[in-house]
Design brief:
Elements: H1 7-18, H2 22-34, H3 38-62, H4 69-77, H5 81-108, H6 118-139, H7 141-169, H8 187-196, H9 206-210, H10 217-246, H11 249-254, H12 259-263, H13 265-304, E1 315-316, E2 319-320, H14 321-336, H15 339-363, H16 365-368, H17 372-394, H18 398-424
Antiparallel strand pairs: 1-2
Helix pairs in contact: 1-10, 2-3, 2-8, 3-8, 3-10, 3-15, 3-17, 4-5, 4-15, 5-6, 5-13, 5-14, 5-15, 5-18, 6-13, 6-14, 7-10, 7-13, 8-17, 13-14, 15-17, 15-18
Length: 428
């Protein structure tokens, strides 16, 4: 029996990972930073993702492993305090992404069905979607895969239809002039906005986890990365053009947390609003489903490489204990931290992880037969973008920046304590 997956399936993993809850969660945020330059912000973030995708493709070809990014960091830097801390930070970044998706679900759901009203509804829906998705993960891993494959098709049909119908509706629209350069924000703010929304692209790294199962890997692995990232760049730019061209900035700001649904109103009325809201709910639920599964596996792989205590490889209700810990952590973060700070912390997390993968690919360039100039460019782009993001957000969004930096420090300290303790006990 052939369990290998082809190029289409591999691309679906990458596209499904990127077009999860991210675009529904951060589109309004992107416009608040970049205004008329929002399509450029998505383009810049996409270029960073595309160059990093090159490093991922080279690493995936040489080290096909279900540990994905965890394996790449260990190969590039060895198994030590640094790599252990960064891999644990990757796991926390998954939790941050889960919180982002849950927040998006909580913002869209009350538009269809109010329960008690206001913030109470937001927290009820956020908690409900995390609990249900966790139950699905415990009940059947096969169901997670089936839900994801169905929802990827549905959300892409809806979003592509949104682009085509919205694009047609732009002709004669009073807000089309908002896309002109005079409405763009300062270049630094544009880059900052691009990096705040970078989380919308991070999902391509899930292809790495499927690398051992991809048939004809020499051809299909690079294509899966590049085709999926390029497709999503074009999709995101198109969506942002339609949104900024359809609604006044004041309307976008008012509906920031569910702006995509609001942008469907001028072309399709209330029906369009409902359709996009349903797409957002399906999309964010499937993203939570898949990311819970991925996060628990990352936690398991880190423990298997002895960068976490062996207890983390144990099972709870027939699933890795990391699934339950990821569930509890997500429930707390999604209810206690606001969407903007979650997005900033998530972007900082993945920019740092991607910078390290680019650097690992640069270090191993002879072994991987990779282009040193391109991998170093990827590393520098991620680092520069990370610096711009931290500096620009430090004055207005201190919580998100401190949360990310605090998690990094905690991961390094905890890993140092764990490895030191392991060696003292004769395990290291």
């Amino acid at each position: 029996m052939n369990n290998k997956i082809g190029l289409k399936e591999a691309m679906s993993i990458g596209i499904g990972g990127m077009v999860g809850g991210g675009i529904f969660a951060v589109l309004g945020l992107a416009v608040s930073y970049a205004k008329g330059g929002t399509p450029i912000a998505f383009l810049f973030a996409g270029i960073v993702a595309l160059i990093t995708g090159y490093s991922y493709s080279k690493m995936s070809l040489k080290y096909p492993d279900r540990g994905g990014t965890v394996k790449f960091i260990n190969q590039g830097f060895g198994i030590n305090v640094f790599s252990g801390a960064m891999n644990n930070f990757l796991w926390v970044s998954y939790i941050i992404m889960l919180s982002l998706y849950a927040s998006a679900f909580g913002s869209y759901a009350p538009n269809l069905l109010k329960i008690l009203g206001g913030k109470v509804d937001f927290h009820l829906y956020v908690s409900l979607v995390i609990i249900v998705a966790t139950f699905v993960n415990y009940y059947s891993i096969q169901m997670v895969g089936k839900i994801e494959s169905i929802v990827v098709a549905i959300k892409l049909i809806i979003l592509i239809s949104f682009v085509f119908i919205g694009g047609y509706g732009l002709f004669g629209n009073n807000h089309l002039d908002q896309l002109e350069i005079s409405y763009w924000t300062h270049p630094i703010e544009l880059i900052s906005g691009a990096m705040v929304i970078f989380v919308a692209y991070e999902g391509f790294e899930l292809i790495a986890n499927a690398a051992p199962d991809i048939e004809n890997p020499q051809s299909n692995i690079p294509k899966a990365y590049f085709y999926s990232i390029i497709f999503v760049i074009i999709l995101y730019i198109s969506i942002s053009i339609v949104t900024v061209g359809s609604l006044a900035f004041s309307e976008i700001a008012k509906a920031q947390d569910y702006v995509l649904a609001e942008a469907a109103k001028p072309m399709l009325g209330q029906a369009g609003f409902v359709i996009i809201t349903i797409a957002a709910l399906l999309s964010t639920f499937s993203a939570i489903n898949a990311t819970l599964y991925g996060g628990s596996r990352v936690n398991y792989e880190i423990a298997k490489d002895r960068e976490l205590p062996k207890n983390f490889t144990s099972m709870l209700w027939n699933q890795p204990i990391g699934l339950f810990i990821t569930f509890i952590s997500t429930l707390l973060m999604a209810n206690l931290v606001d969407l903007t700070n979650i997005s900033i912390a998530g972007s900082i997390g993945f920019l740092l992880v991607f910078a390290l993968v680019n650097l690992a690919c640069f270090k191993l360039s002879e072994e991987l037969n990779s282009n040193k100039l391109l991998t170093m460019a990827g590393f520098l782009l991620c680092i520069i973008a990370l610096a711009v993001l931290i500096i620009s957000q430090f004055s207005s969004q201190k919580i998100g920046v401190f949360m990310a930096l605090g998690i990094i420090v905690f991961c390094v300290f905890a890993e140092w304590i764990y490895i030191k303790k392991s060696r003292n006990l004769g395990f290291g």
